[in-house]
Amino acid sequence: MIWHRSNMRKGKSMNDMHMLIAMQEMLYYVVMGVCVITIPVLLVGLVVSVVQAATQINEMTMTFIPKFIVMCSLLFILSPWLMGRLIDLTHRFMTNLPDYIR
């Protein structure tokens, strides 16, 4: 975790550093959510491309179907984890909303 509730002191007003820390954490979760799905799909595409180059078979569905299957399976498997992180982040931001408004 990059940002903790201990960084926000009660009675203190919001400053630029608090907002930068919050934005940094949001960006971290966006990058994490995208990379968890994108990197394995890219690796599957690379393997399929090497196989296609070795066998000289240039079929578009041969590249699309494995990537689609990997993407759907990763979304099915990792959705609870991703939603847990998103719910935790939203809960922390809503808890600290009065500090952000000041």
Describe the structure.
There is one protein chain. This protein has 102 residues and is mostly helical. The chain has one domain. The chain contains 3 helices and no strands. The longest helix is centred in the middle third of the chain and has 40 residues. The protein is elongated. The model has no long low-confidence stretch (mean pLDDT 84).
Q: Topology, please?
A:
Layout: H1 16-55, H2 60-95, H3 97-101
Helix pairs in contact: 1-2
> What is the mean pLDDT?
84
Largest sheet: none
Order of helices and strands, N to C? HHH
Shape estimate: elongated
* Quaternary structure annotation: single chain
Span of the ends, CA to CA:
24 Å
Strand content: under 5%
How many distinct domains?
A: 1
| Helical segment count | 3
Low-confidence stretches: none
Structural category is mainly alpha
Rg, Cα atoms, Å: 20 Å
How many beta-strand elements?
0
**Residue share in helix:** over 70%
Search tags:
102 residues; mainly alpha; elongated
Quick summary of this structure?
The chain is an all-alpha fold.
